[in-house]
Write the structure tokens for this entry.
Amino acid sequence: MAAGLLGIEELPREEIQKILDRARDFQHAAPKLDIARGKMVVNLFFESSTRTRTSFEIAAKRLGADTVSISASGSSVSKGESLVDTLNTLGAMRPSAIVMRHAASGAPHFLARHLPTPIINAGDGTHEHPTQALLDARTILDRTKSLEGLRVAIIGDIAHSRVARSNMYLLSKFDAHVVLCGPPALLPKQLAELCPNVTLTFDMREAIEGADVIMMLRVQLERQNEIPFPANEYFQFYGLRSEHVERAKPDVLVMHPGPINRGRELSSDVADSQRSVILNQVENGVAVRMAVLEKVLNES
Ligand code: NCD
């Protein structure tokens, strides 16, 4: 299997640390570098994306690479071409790396087994979204020396969230304590067994009590085929409002991977408050993806 980045679960802590350190260099880098000149990065997005896709493209261009972006709706996937045929077609054009988002968990792993090209997972179903966890860690570390001992509350549709899984793996490797919180239908008990330092609660106030970081998640209705979920009542029980934030540490960070739904996962005043680092996360998305692309392109 060619080098790439498929998930945080299998990435050693030292490798994660190296990416986070390198991303810090890129936060202040010149707008255009020469590091990846002559390389070609293909962005292959089978699911919608604003932040991830744009920031991978900007990151590749800043490193000096060429980029091509393909979305399923405008490609031959909409003409019935199978995943393997699409991938073999792209592989035959010999890109230096493929960044892939797909609705099926494990799709990038499948691709990585079939192609000699390094694959970067930009979100696979409900499984992992490694660069999101890396940019979240970078954002926390911009404000705190270490992740060790932090209490991080992850609140919302945990069951369908690849962001929650990747963050659990990463935070657990760095000895932070993760509290997962959501309505019972969206919070499977087995998740706490995935890695050490993870606990569960259905009570939002309990999750937030003394938290250093609150990560809110979107209710992913597009993945909830089996659950008739009353999305309108959601805000009343699991929407983050100022009165909740007051229960956390005074310098708590409020995070959200986006896209945010104001009035559903969090109130507008919280989203726009001093405690919110949502746009810092977006900004760090570019620096972190530069670090990931540099590593993957160097190894290929
Ligand atoms: C997340 C995703 O696609 O997994 N968004 C993102 O990448 N910034 C979360 C979401 O869609 O709710």
